[in-house]
Amino acid sequence: MRFFINLLRPSSARSLSIQIAKTIRKSAELIDGKKIAGDMRKVLKREIEEWVQNNNTRPPSLVAVLVGEDPASQKYVHFKMNAAKEVGITSKTINLNTSITEEELLDIVNKLNQDETVDGILVQLPLPEHVSERKICNAVDPQKDVDGFHLNNIGKLCVNKDTLIPCTALAVVELIKRSKIETFGKNVVVCGRSKNVGLPIAMLLHSDYREELPGMEATVTICHRNTPREELIYFAKRADIIISATGVVNLITPDMVKPGACVIDVGITRIKVDGKTRVVGDVDFEGVSKIAGHITPVPGGVGPMTVTMLMKNTFQAAQCLKAST
Ligand SMILES: NC(=O)c1ccc[n+]([C@@H]2O[C@H](COP(=O)([O-])OP(=O)(O)OC[C@H]3O[C@@H](n4cnc5c(N)ncnc54)[C@H](O)[C@@H]3O)[C@@H](O)[C@H]2O)c1
Fold first, then answer.
1. Among 197, 251, 307, which residue has the most ligand 1 atoms within 8 Å of its CB, making it the best to mutate?
2. Residues with pLDDT less than 70, the chain
3. Which residues of 48-59 are buried (b: 16+ CB within 10 A; e: fewer)?
4. Which of 3.40.50.720, 3.40.50.10860, 1.10.510.10, 3.40.50.620 would CATH assign to domain 55-147?
5. What pLDDT, on the 0 to 100 scale, is given for residue 10?
6. Ligand 1 probe mutation, 134, 221, 246, most atoms within 8 A of CB
């Protein structure tokens, strides 16, 4: 009896309805980047085999330049080389000492530019402080620039021209498309404005469908380290899609997510838990997955897709170079 009396009290009714809502609310649908990447790699492998056969040519080839012994960079290059093998791209890593000068590195890049057996060149970032990353990225032949970091390629992206586009941006778009998330006229918040990650994501998301790039046609707001937290919350709460690429752990919390929104976590941060290293993203995954409609995990979300898009870019570069000979 007391239970029913309590039910009639507004505050009790409210707390009961929250309880019920909590129990019946479905968790967000997981966007399984690892699975999608695996499926894409199988298709890509077939496409590459066919292209090699039909053109009576060698397989596409990728060279990674790795300066120093940063464990994270070593790991990323290792993943990239494995993926290349998986899809039938020949690959090689050039390991260099951190003491290498900018001139020496430029010389290596120039030799790779001129090497007709190389289709794709990637210089793993970050580089040592005494080497200008911008200079090195600009030294890579734009046609072999599979990371899409050369100014020519960034410029083309900014004017919606088809080109080699940074892999993480391609990965985010591919995940959104394959999850059938509508972007046309929708509100998107991109957290992070770096030239290699946040900016290209934002460029692709608001691209015009009447031009050469995949027109995503969203209304995009870019937030960055100097966006006040309350402004970030204001924009995030109105967003149909939140893409976070900052490396700030727990930047995106449940209170700032619109119910049903799609949340794409690009961030990668290594933290120590009980003496063990764990990789986490920018999003409070557990909390946000109770509110969002779709969510990417970390690891297993954007990461494997980024590597897959690198393989697609390498194949694209090989096709373009072959066509121009
Ligand atoms: N999953 C992948 O495939 C992949 C690929 C590349 C980078 N990453 C990860 O993405 C993250 C970003 O990479 P990056 O190279 O752009 O890093 P970066 O350090 O160059 O840029 C970080 C960005 O975050 C913004 N930022 C910092 N604090 C913020 C805040 N409180 N609110 C909003 N924005 C804030 C900064 O303004 C900056 O634009 C890193 O964690 C990186 O490891 C993941």
1. 197
2. 1-25
3. beebeeeeeeeb
4. 3.40.50.10860
5. 46
6. 246
